[in-house]
Structure formats: structure tokens, C-alpha cells
Amino acid sequence: MKANRVSGGTTKRGNSFWRRTRLNRSTWFTPESVALPHWLAQNVSNLAVSWHGTALESLQSDIYQDLARPPGEPISPSVINNLQGVVPKVLKEIRFFQKYAHHVAISDSCGEMLRDVYQIPQKRVHVVLNGVDEENFGEDLKMGVEFRSRIGVPKDGSLVLGVAGRLVRDKGHHLLFEAFPRLIKNHPDVYLVVAGSGPAGQRYRDLGPRVIVGLDLTLMEAMLSGTPVMASRFPSIKGSIMVDDEFGYMFAPNVESLLEALEQVVKDGAGRLAQRGNACRDYAISMFTATKMALAYERLFLCIKDEAFCMYP
Fold it and tell me: Which residues form the Glycosyl transferase family domain (predicted)?
């Protein structure tokens, strides 16, 4: 079963949500990121929780972030605190996760972690990937030409690369901004468009002319639009999105690995990239649509109500 979430996250609204639910026994669905304290949740029968990142996954992220640290730059105090506190937190999670009836993982790697490390029985772990509205994403060559003209990319530009995401350090933009100048020394007709905003936005603007666009794009949206993707070799991405080398390029979170991947993109050229883009779209239509996600959740809710529906083909 593949496709998104039931409930989850952690906010101060948890206790309020709990009080409302106790007063009204009807089913509650909320778009808020809420959570019940586990000492309350353990007394709720048939409770489903959604995990958008466990403590063990955050440890992987902290390791990658520190490995990307430039030589001579001191380790971040927040990383030190996270590394010191994560093991006790993982042990606590392993103990109280058992109290929940159903666990929804939004990536295959998270599902494996819940089963293998957190010791959740397989029948209680459901992998439901996020879905994208398939009506809003697709190939539009005319729009692409107009966009290139609007942002100032010359007509003879051989290749335009794009990166989308919040401009914060843990997104890894600094790796790209170190690798890209080295790339264009040998390939001056390659251009980079940066889409996003955030605390580091002004710092990145000061590095040189570029276009900052307030967009919120994901790898799945890019694939649904017929665009090959490039991504860090994180378990969640490798296990659920970049499941075939044909879909694009992966790199370790360091400058040399990223530069090697960028060189391969240029070497492949427009024709090969178009082939990869077609493969991306075909796969995304079969896996990452909002319709598929909704059907998966419908099946999950039936499963929660009746275990007979928990047997997936």
C-alpha cells in the first residue's frame, strides 16, 4: 500500500485536541499537525499515528549536515545537542510506539525503520506516500520558453538547472553554490535558477545574480511535470522516489559528489534528459497522484475499522 498521513506531529494543541475528542465520540479528522502525549494516547484504542520523521531519521540528517560542514567551520551547537540527545529519545520512542494500533509512514525507509528498529509488527505499519494533484502538473513547452525569456536565460543557453526549497542551511544550498561555479568554468552556457525564500535568502543573493522565486515544489511534482530530478542520497528519497536510475541523479551530500552528478547532467544533454523526464512522468502518474493517495487512505480507514481490509495485495 503506497501513498500520506492520518494524524501526527507535535504541537501545544495536543491537549486541547484530546479534550475535544473526549467530549465528542465521533471520528475526528484535522489538517493541523497535532499529537497526543503518549501517556494519554496509550489509553486510546485503535489509534493511528503518522510519522513524518522519527528521532532515528533526524540523526541521519544531523550526520549529513555536519559532514557537509566546510573545513575549519566549527560544529553547530544545535547539532551537538541533537547528537547527544537522540539515542535516549530513540529508546523512548521504541518503548511507547508499541502503544499505537496503526503507524502510517510517508516513505518506505520510514516503514522499514518502524518494523526493523522500532519493532512494530508488519501488519500495523502502513506506507502511504504523499500525492500530488495530477491536474496541476504536466509538460508545457510554451510556458517553459516564456519563463526562460522572463528570467533572462539566453536562447542559446544549452541547459537550465533548477533548485526549489526553503533557503535554509540544512537544505544544502551551500553545496550547490560551491559546486556550480566550478561547473560553469567548463560549461558557461549552463544556467541555474533558484526558487525559494528563507533566512539565508539575502546571503545567497549576495553571491551573485540569480532569480529567487517563491515556489514550493517537490521531487514528485517535478517528476509529474516530466522533469528528471537530482537529489541527495537520503534513504527516504532513494527508497520511495528515486527507485530507478532512469529517473535522474543522486549524490552524496558533499561538493565533489554533487559536482560529479552535475557534470553527468551536462554530458547527458537535452535528448537524454527528455528520455529521463518521460520515465519520471510515467512512474509519477502511477505512484504519486492525489487520487492514489486518497484511495490508499480510504483503504487504511477501512483497515482501522475492520482488520479484514488490512490484507493488501
Answer: 154-205
Q: Helix, strand or coil for residue 145?
A: helix
SS3 category, 76:
coil
The structural domains of the chain, with segments of one domain joined by +, span 14-131+289-310, 141-287
Is pTM beyond 0.85 here? no
Q: Are 106 and 4 in contact (CB under 8 A)?
A: yes
- Judging by DSSP bridges, how do beta strands 159-164 and 190-195 pair with one another? parallel
What are φ and ψ of residue 92, in 5° steps?
-65, -40
Residue 130, all three cell numbers: 504523499
Measured between alpha carbons, how far apart are the two ends of the chain, in Å? 8
Domain 141-287 class?
alpha beta
Cα(14)–Cα(34) distance, rounded to whole angstroms? 5
How do residues 134-154 score in pLDDT, each as one tens digit?
A: 888 877 777 777 877 777 777
